[in-house]
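Reopening this ticket.

The earlier resolution said the output was attached, but the attachment link was broken on my side. Pasting everything inline this time so it's all in one place.
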Amino acid sequence: MYTARAATSRLAQISKQFTPQVRAMATLNTKFKLNTGADIPAVGFGTWQDKDAQEGAVTEALKAGYTHIDTARIYGTEPAVGAAIKKSGIPRSQIFITTKLWNNAHHPDDVEPALDASLSDLGTDYVDLYLMHWPVAFARGESAFPKDSNGKIINGETDYVDTWKAMEKAFKKGKAKAIGISNFSRKDTERLLKETEVVPAANQLEVHPYLQQLEACEWFKSKGIHVQHYSPFGNQNETYSKGQGMSKVIDDPTLVEIGKKYGKNGAQVALAWGIAQGHSVLPKSKTTSRIKDNLDGDFRLDKADLDQIRSVDKQLRFNDPSANFGFNFYIGEDGKVE
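Inline output:
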């Protein structure tokens, strides 16, 4: 009689016939736990830029197997994300949606209406994660980037602690199943923890092999805050002027060489490295083949390879809009240039 135990034993024997490298080829569909108890898929699909291409791109991502979509009010891609999800026929409960509060809606009276507008465009009555995009307020109003006659951003008077308290209310109403932050330093976050009630579920940061932020990430983890990597390929995005005129992070010889061992490319190794840290990663693409390749970045790297990747850290930050946004971001953090 062929029992379930025998079948399990046979499966284990077959698995042992493959090298670790071959077994690593499959997408692992890794998930992590937020401090709310909810699961967050390790690989999310980013929707920043290419606004008009996003409905098709998200459609391809959902077909490929993504269950985590990341958007933001400022991206202008929430309607496209909502339309793609609706067309997919995938139950809402099976998709993890993140969106973000923009800087011109930081006043406590504006937070819930801003979330309601996002929910309407997304075609849902809740988001799984709602982030404060930056710890700085712009002037209230319709303009996403309010400027004075000299072209300088007009800042608002709202403190990010008061914005967070308004987000807590939306969280308690169930409109956001979890709330979090983005681009917050440890210093910014420490103050938030001291003066508010709900511990952020996540902090979305620029993290990649050239800006690993190991100490900061461990600190966030110790506070129960999950770290997410935006721009996990670093200067692959040409928007970052600081990354121009130098080779791409994903073409780093160490990443490329490690990738050969697993039949992967440098981009996939960068993603696998992030996941190995216990972080979720948010690659973006509008190319079908790359969309699929990025999802396959969820594979297991050997410890020796992880140790080798640690050596490529250059503490090189590509995104710091402090001068333009009227707020000194990332004080005391790796890659901060004063």
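Reporter confirms the inline version is readable. The chain has 13 helices and ten strands. The first helix runs from residue 4 to 16.
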